[in-house]
Amino acid sequence: MKTIYISGPFSHPDPVHGIPRNILAASEAALRCCRAGWAVVCPHKNTADFQHVQDIPYDFWIQMDLELLARSDAALFLPGWVNSPGAGREWKYAQELKIPSFYECNGIPDPAVVAERRVV
Q1: Residues 6+ apart with CB under 8 A from 17
Q2: CA dihedral sign, ordered 20, 44, 86, 38
Q3: Considering its fold, how many domains does the chain have in total?
Q4: 3-state secondary structure of 16
Q5: Is the residue at 118 inside a domain?
Q6: Which domain holds residue 11?
Q7: Which of 23, 32, 81, 100 has its CB surrounded by the most CB atoms within 10 Å?
Q8: What is the pLDDT of residues 28-72, one digit of tens each?
Q9: In whole angstroms, what is the distance from residue 62 CA to residue 96 CA?
Q10: How large a percentage of the chain has pLDDT more than 70?
Q11: What is the rounded CA–CA span in Å between residue 40 and residue 17?
């Protein structure tokens, strides 16, 4: 089964409603990807509410996400990703690693169009 990494904004100026909305948007995209046949890596769901953790620096979360991205067969960038510093880093890293990148505004890609990448 091929894996797709969901990338999009997590942080938001409105910490009460903005972050939960971003997590929900990623969650909804992840379900659409599952229905299309992808195994999904959704960091938003993996780290939901971790924004309250004070003893782990922001860069740790980014490095963890980049590691998960590197192990994925493809990446899906959600609306608003261009305004997100973290998603911007993920996009650049995906380009460096030649990970096929898709944009949700174009729909959910078919896993059959992507070759599997295995990083050990």
Answers
A1: none
A2: negative
A3: 1
A4: coil
A5: no
A6: 3-113
A7: 23
A8: 999 999 999 999 999 988 877 666 678 889 889 899 999 999 999
A9: 16
A10: 92
A11: 24
Q: What is the CATH number of the domain that holds 61?
A: 3.40.50.10400
Q: Which residues make beta-bridge pairs with 3?
A: 39
Q: Which residues contact 47 (CB under 8 A, 6 or more apart)?
A: 10, 61
* Contact (Cβ atoms closer than 8 angstroms) between residue 9 and residue 22: yes
Q: Is residue 119 part of a domain?
A: no
Helices 58-70 and 85-96: crossing angle, nearest 10°?
A: 30
Q: Report yes or no: 76 and 4 within 8 Å, Cβ to Cβ.
A: yes
Give residue for tokens 């659409």. Answer: 32
Is 93 among the domain residues?
A: yes
